[in-house]
Amino acid sequence: MVVAEALHQAGYASGRLGDRETAIVAFEKARQLWAVAGDRRGAAAALHSIAVAQYEKGDFQRAGRSFEDALVGVPPDRSSVGHCVLFAQLRHIIA
Fold first, then answer.
1. Predicted local distance difference test score (pLDDT) of residue 89
2. Contact predicate 30/53, CB 8 Å
3. Which pLDDT score, from 0 to 100, does residue 67 have?
4. Distance between CA 39 and CA 94 in Å, rounded?
5. What does CATH list as the number for 2-94?
6. Which of 27, 68, 74, 87 has the fewest other C-beta atoms within 10 Å?
7. How far apart are CA 90 and CA 11, in angstroms?
8. Other CB atoms within 10 Å distance of the CB of residue 1
9. pLDDT averaged per 10 residues in sequence order, the chain, 95 residues
10. Which pLDDT value is given to residue 20?
């Protein structure tokens, strides 16, 4: 999924440049492509990136929901690492 990966990287670049709205749009497009392709890891990564951008915007409620959605989407083969990272980030928002 070269297009999804390119969109994800474009979102990352936009976020680092401070344009979080453009980043979220790019991450969402990447998420949709990965979801349609059945790539749960890619879709969860995109949701995680959306959550980080929302958090950086100060939209903690939406970020929390996106982190939770990403947590549900982490494939079983990545669950131990993925769940630990997402739980830590979610706990930071709740605290």
1. 64
2. no
3. 84
4. 29
5. 1.25.40.10
6. 87
7. 21
8. 14
9. 95 96 98 95 92 92 88 65 58 60
10. 97
